[in-house]
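Researcher: Please predict.
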Amino acid sequence: MIAAPELPSDFPFPPDTDTRFSSDTDFSEEPDGRTAVTVSLAAKGKGGKKGKKPAGEKGKGAKGTGRLNGHHQENGMENMMLFEVVKLGRSAMQSVVDDWIESYKTDRDVALLDLINFFIQCSGCKGVVSGEMFRNMQNSEIIRRMTEEFDEDSGDYPLTIAGPQWKRFKTSFCEFIAVLVRQCQYSIIYDEYMMDTVISLLTGLSDSQVRAFRHTSTLAAMKLMTALVNVALNLSINMDNTQRQYESERNKIVAKRANDRLELLLQKRKELQENQDEIENMMNAIFKGVFVHRYRDSIAEIRAICIEEIGVWMKLYSDAFLNDSYLKYVGWTMHDKQGEVRLKCLTALQGLYYNRELNTRLELFTSRFKDRIVSMTLDKEYDVAVQAIKLLTLVLHSTDEVLSPEDCESVYHLVYSAHRPVAIAAGEFLFKKLFSQREPEEEGAPKRRGRQSANANLIKTTVFFFLESELHEHAAYLVDSLWECGAELLKDWECMTSLLLDDPLPGEEALTDRQETALIEIMLCTVRQAAECHPPVGRGTGKRVMTAKEKKTQLDDRTRITELFAVSLPPLLAKYAMDSEKVTNLLQLPQFFDLEIYTTGRLEKHLESLLRQVREIVEKHTDTDVLEVCSKTYHALCNEEFTIFNRVDIARSQLLDEQVDKFNRLLEDFLQEGEEVDEDDTYQILSTLKRITAFHNAHDLSQWDLFASNFKLLNTGIENGDMPEQIVIQSLQCTHYVILWNLAKLSEGSSRKEDMVTLRKQMRAFCMMCQRYLTNVNTAVKEQAFTILCDVLLIFSHQMVSGGREHLEPLVYSPEDSLQVELLSFILNHVFIDQDEETNSTDGQQDDEAGKIEALHKRRNLLAAYCKLIIYCVVEMKTGADIFKQYMRYYNDYGDIIKETMSKTRQIDKIQCAKTLIISLQQLFNEMLSELGHGFDRSSSSFCGIKELARRFSLTFGLDQVKTRDAIAMLHKDGIEFAFKEPSPQGEGNPPLHLAFLDILSEFSSKLMRQDKRTVHMYLERFMTFQMALQREDCWLPLISYRNSLQAGGDDDTMSVMSGYSSRGSSVRSKKAKPTAATSAAAAAAAAAAAAATAAKRKLPEEEGSSSSEVWQQSLQTPVMMPSPHLTSTAMREPKRGRDDSYMGVYPLPHDQQTPHPHTPQHHPQQTPQHIQTPMDYNSQVTWMLAQRQQEEARQQQERAMNYAKLRTNLQHAIRRGTGLMEEDEEPIVEDVMMSSEGRLDDLNEGMDFDTMDIDLPPSKNRRERSELKPDYFDPASIMDESVLGVSMF
């Protein structure tokens, strides 16, 4: 294809255009008698350019009679403009375009003006291009004018407005452009006027700083380019056809050759070539003027549009566009930071790889960007990862040699992904790679079944893959991944049972024991998937409503499962009866049976065989998992709705009678023998107790009265102290089941008073027994007792009477204080321990990583059990302080549990939760004092760790200060009281013992509302003395820091004056209220006095009085909102008015004027300060004294404060880096876009072919200079990784 020079950004319009009207039907008379050009849908008289017209046609664009807002009126109906027609979408686009073409033929300037306004209005601009503007202004000037008239009040425009109407508008907008080009492809687009004007306009708009213009014009230009590509493709096909006809005619003998036909064919080919050159010029202009710049736009939607359309071009016209010069843009953009753009790249490539005929042209691209596509399977955006896997599947379908084994393995493991679409895509890849090679069956031959079928080898391959993946517990995930593409294979249960039961064929290798175990597990997962029709746990987003076809398939599958396994399950159980793992999986199959088929299919004898096998397994095995699955099997078969119930119930009763009688007999002998119990008797009673406990979990065994025997056994264990731990554990569990079954019967409502009293006695006795076992020497016994005790306390708490069960109120049990203390002590001693301690305490059994994970899981369950007691108010909330203080230290192990507990307790009682948090910080502070002493260093790791914990606590309160207002205020109140509670052991004049706690408390200052900061500040001043406000030593820095945190953000300068005449008071005042330089110290003191008098006169508003009274029980009664007083005079103020008795002056007066008050006023409420009227000269004297002191210590104070702040910041950062904890409580940290960002790409310039139609130039010429671009909307660094922008790829 031939290149064309770039089109100028502004096209010169011909001054003289010979326009003729095709017929008289194009005229209509306006009411005033003037002639106007109208189109049935698109108005043409909108002040547009009219060109050279007869004199009688002047003034058609003027507003006159019959026009409303400049639009023509016809029969009372307004002729809508193109934008309105397309937006409504009520008319067929074909007729809309045809009407516009007729208008263009009539007066192309007016029609073109309407088209220009169409694009302007589609951008959301309210401006209108008039005929004068169209005739006399350049495109850049028109765009500048439209930009000035753009409505910037709203950021929405038609392409981004939500709603179904605007979604249809986008579709109609794109359809209009496509139909317009298609209808004009034979004449109008070659007139060098319409297309030149439109392309020039769209190119200018696409370079605008206004996003709406840029977005809309880019979409229009890309759709216009796509339409031109279709035209170019048609021209190419016509040229080929014409060339073949010409060659055919020319090859004829001279006698039969038609020279006139040859001339016509040559002329037609010449015209087609000229048209193709014109189309190429247009595409050149759009590609260079729009695409090359906008595929790197800062807006992701614009970049996505460009990539999506270039994929369409390469797919439609592969001969012209499918080469490396265009593919490189897709390859580059695969590194885009936005998942939306990366997704468009992959979908564009899928359309290319789907066509096998194009594979040869994609070889170089595949070799260059294969690694990038493989890495995108781990993309953070799941939609991108899914499409990347599907693209690799298409690549695999085209050729097996491209992807290496390492590339395939990186996709294989994704079948175990928790995200189901990713797993299904990976399953399709795996199925195509491993299972597509199936042996062809001979025609006419009988279908092979069982292990001779074609699926036998494929099932073995599935087993081999499952074992090699080393994720044995995830068979359900593998089956779910392969279900959609390989359901036929996975449902071949006949073949699976044949592989397990039948002998191998001659020359066939038999399955190993490990392979048989894996096959049984896979078979169970396929049966569950077919019967339940929902993905495994962790993959489903909720139950999906099945269609009628899916329900029919489910019923058919359950019928097949029952008919097949009802016969084959007993032989399988007989063969693997001694293998616990295989039996556990096989015994789960009856849970998915359709039990009615046992009767309708006359399969009763197979049911008898199944019950016999299950009974033998129960008698042979003592493994808990096997016994529990046997219990569940009996529970599934004992369904009263089916006729087989009586048969199964008799078998179950016989089994339980034997086991209970055996247990009672063994227990009697066991208790009589005392210390002379041998190991055989111990094993017998333990195995029998295990069977009874397993069955009691799913079956009601109340008729056998197991509570008395088990309680006697537990009591003997307490008295003797030598009871085997497993017997105690099983007995505790069995007794727990007895109580729960009795409660279940009472909950039904039909209960006697005697049963209620009996259960209450049993429950309380059992709780006391569990409490006694908390002090057992065996850890496993203590953990079992703790878990059961937490469950019982939670079940029998005050929550049990809710939901209409008030009759159970006598059973409610609240734990005593001693029990709460023992439960908390157990948690602190057995949960919050280091991993090394746990490893050493278990005699080396936790050396492997799996053992450590299991131990951690057990400790997490213990902590969760206790936290539920806190959440449901079974134990006091303040006991959670010992849990919350471990938040930082054990964040990796229990951070999620503790954080959720804090969240739930805050929902229950915000104030009590805040008290609990501050108690936990106080406990840590006291522990630090006992460890480091009173003269500790505030830069120590212990103190910085407490500050970091306080910061984390502060972040959990969220951003809504109104909801947490009372809680935060109470937290500060308790913290202030704690800081001043203990006086200094070194005597008066030294800081209180806990003063450093204010530094910790300052982490919560940012959560205070502005008016509450003032109230907290005044409450703080109740505990301060005049000497404290003057101190500037390092030991007083926590007080200074805390006061500054309370003063930050305040607009009221009066607060700074009233809150102490400190040297830092003036630095935190608001500049808005700062007095002029001429204001004297006396005037400042007068302002302070006026503010105090005004505040004393105010009263607390009624709507805020209740909350303040709850939070501030002992605080001064100041209003929550303290507006600045209106100072109307600078005269000397009157003496202070007396305050209420609870107020204590901030600064003590001299000893001759006021009695000294104690350091901690809350401990001596009987001592109240005397309210003495202070003379004015005293305040002036204080102000002068402070000013002198400030000048002397300014430099020293500033240096100390800055050094202290730097030290705090550095240590805080060091602590955060050192802990290595996750910052979940803070705002999220921006992470890399890709999950796997590996290396920089190689230089891809080598070997690339640039032979194209010269639409693009080398990258350095395609890109405009950086200085010409507007930095506000174009920033390459924000679009792509540096590794992409810094490497020349082609």
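Model: Residues 232 and 279 are 6 Å apart (CA to CA).
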